[in-house]
Design goal:
By secondary structure, this protein is α/β, with parallel strands linked by helices. The protein has 13 helices and 13 strands. It has two domains: about 130 residues, Aspartate Aminotransferase, domain 1; about 210 residues, Aspartate Aminotransferase, domain 2 (3-Layer(aba) Sandwich), CATH 3.40.640. The strands form three sheets. A seven-stranded mixed sheet has the order 2-8-7-6-5-3-4, sandwiched between helices. The chain has a four-stranded antiparallel sheet with strand order 9-10-13-12, covered by helices on one side.
């Protein structure tokens, strides 16, 4: 039902039922725009090849559709455990990493809990904390998008539990922050550190080895980015089995559907294809960065991910709208504060990146 057609009485009724604190929570919103080239969501530009899709379809065809999927995704967890060199009990699978983030906050959101994250960062940390009724505190980055250790530790009030989310590399700024500054958080009493390594395959940098000696560390990964399965929503956590059990206490049953489990297993078995796509994206990232750095009036920021944050002198809105007119959709992050006048572009295929650069720099280019 369109929002404009909602009965005002029903709207008032829903507001009266709404839990305190939720009225001011803004949901995650994706603005619809007409486009030919989509470079706004940090997805892989490469779909699974037809032969892999056929293999996945064949495996899924052998699945009983009238039966619920494996509730614990045992085969997928085992494959991930083998790949990572950890016991299967250290791996938990979710309907995207977002579900695991939400489950952790819901399970650990005691009255004395606080969720902390550097800002700007992935907005879902704050959205999910507020949705769960848990206090959220953003610690501002420095003017050059580095971690501000003093601001971060100031957010970690004495007493209570602190769930600290670190996006590594950070979204939307792109870089992996100083490792020692992050590791020092593990020594703060009452801190659970959640390292969101959604872009690990692009950066090659991880805190996974620290899990052997750090019981208050959780690492998150996803199939939505480098593995190209964004539409199927598969994320996973790696941690001490006690933390996996915490998530299991609150996650919904049968949370990862059968097709998603089959697809993730198949992609893992063909990681040579993923490596090839990664190489292509990294080469294109270098090309896009070099072109932006050479352009006059554009400030770029270091990136270890599959996207680039940049600030054009002429203004974010003007550049965003000009690219949209050319059929190229990127992310407009312009807002007061550190992201003033900033835009973020996902690295696409060579043709897509050429279209982006042409639209940005005012040169004609055909889009296949």
């Amino acid at each position: 039902m369109p929002t404009d057609d909602v009965d005002p009485q029903a709207r008032r009724l829903s507001r009266s039922f709404l839990r305190d604190g939720l009225a001011d929570v803004e949901p995650y919103h994706v603005e619809p725009h007409r486009h030919r080239v989509k470079l706004d969501a940090n997805e892989s530009p490469y779909d699974a090849p037809p032969d892999l899709k056929a293999e996945i379809a064949g495996a899924f065809a052998d699945t009983r559709w009238n039966r619920y999927p494996d509730p614990r995704a045992e085969r997928l967890r085992l494959a991930l455990a083998d790949r990572l060199g950890v016991p299967i009990g250290c791996v938990g699978v979710g309907n995207g990493s977002d579900e695991i983030i939400a489950a952790l906050i819901h399970a650990l959101g005691r009255t004395d809990a606080r969720v902390v994250a550097p800002e700007p960062t992935f907005s879902m940390y704050g959205i999910l904390a507020r949705a769960a009724g848990v206090e959220y505190h953003g610690a501002p980055l420095t003017s050059d998008f580095e971690l501000d250790s003093d601001a971060l530790h100031a957010a970690l009030r004495p007493g209570g539990t602190k769930i600290v989310f670190i996006s590594y590399p950070n979204n939307p700024t792109g870089a992996c922050w100083d490792r020692d500054t992050i590791a020092n958080l593990l020594d703060v009493p009452g801190v659970l550190l959640v390292l969101d390594e959604a872009y690990y395959e692009y950066s090659g940098m991880t805190f996974l080895p620290e899990l052997a000696t750090r019981g208050n560390l959780i690492v998150l990964r996803t199939f939505s980015k480098a593995f190209g399965l964004a539409s199927l929503r598969v994320g996973y956590m790696v941690a001490d089995p006690e933390w996996v059990d915490v998530v299991d206490r609150v996650r919904l049953p049968y949370n990862v559907n059968a097709l998603s489990q089959v697809a993730a297993l198949t992609i893992l078995a063909h990681d040579d294809r993923v490596a090839e796509h990664l190489r292509w994206v990294m080469e294109e990232r270098d090309r896009v960065l070099a072109a932006l750095d050479e352009a006059e009036g554009i400030e770029t920021f270091p990136t270890d991910a599959n996207f680039v944050l940049f600030r054009p002198r002429e203004g974010a809105d003007a550049v965003f709208n000009r690219l949209l007119q050319a059929g190229v959709l990127i992310r407009n992050l312009d807002r007061p504060g550190l992201l003033r006048n900033c835009l973020r572009v996902t690295i696409g295929t060579p043709t897509e990146n050429t279209a982006f650069l042409a639209g940005l720099l005012g040169e004609p280019a055909a889009v296949a």
